[in-house]
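From: lab user (bench 3)
To: helpdesk
Subject: output format question, protein + adenosine-5'-triphosphate

Hello, I'm new to running complex predictions and I'm not sure whether the block I got back is the full result or only part of it. Here's what I submitted:
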Amino acid sequence: AVPDRRVVLRGVTRRYGTRTALDGVDLDLGPGVTGLLGRNGAGKTTLMRCLATDLDAGSGEVCLLGLDPTRAPERTDIRRRLGYLPQNPDFYPHFTAFALLDYMAVLKELGGRRARHDEVRRVLRQVGLYDRRHSRVRRLSGGMRQRLALASALMGDPDLLLLDEPTVGLDPEQRIRFRNLVSRLAVDSTVVLSTHQIEDVAALCGHIVCLDRGRVVFDGAPGALLDRARGHVWEGPGD
Ligand code: ATP
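Helpdesk reply: Thanks, we reran it on our side. This is the complete output you should expect:
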């Protein structure tokens, strides 16, 4: 049977003290790439974290991959089928690239030593870092670290991939490679991509969600967003 790859949110609200970071968010996302847009502070990172880690904090309902994250056994399943690339990935600088990914593989319970090592090699090749596997993290450039973070998110071949501003720090050629890789992955997984890069959106996203002050202000196809933007121009007061 085809696994359920939907992400459904109903009335999700998250607060930091008195500040409301997410305000009654309803979403229904399926396979392919959904672009998550919005100015700084709109709530994109909070939404990513809410899907990736704080699954049951705050109010509202979340259903990921057909599973209920408030139930411990289902949450374990979700964690295994989910890959998360956080905004400013934090690494152990003294680890080698290989050791770091192997450690992540242990945390993800990806099996015994042999299975883990095979998986680490696979993802290192996927992001073009296999040759640097013995380099220590602190010796890698910003772009390489970003690719290492992507490799970590790709371990276990996730059904749900959450990428928070993944192309920051990549040079133009790496950006193109990144887009090619994500478009291949998105054929059979659900990808949520937070970005300020219009090229990423144009190349990858079949669905767009815009947040503003924690609310969903647009949810639909990229063409409809463009039409709306054009509408604002033509319907404006003019000159
Ligand atoms: P950016 O594009 O800058 O990453 P964002 O859309 O990801 O922005 P969030 O980081 O989710 O936005 O922030 C949403 C709101 O919550 C902002 O008003 C922010 O100041 C606030 N916020 C985020 N994290 C915290 C925190 N740990 N403590 C207090 N307030 C926070």
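A quick orientation on your result: The radius of gyration is 18 Å. Let us know if anything else is unclear.
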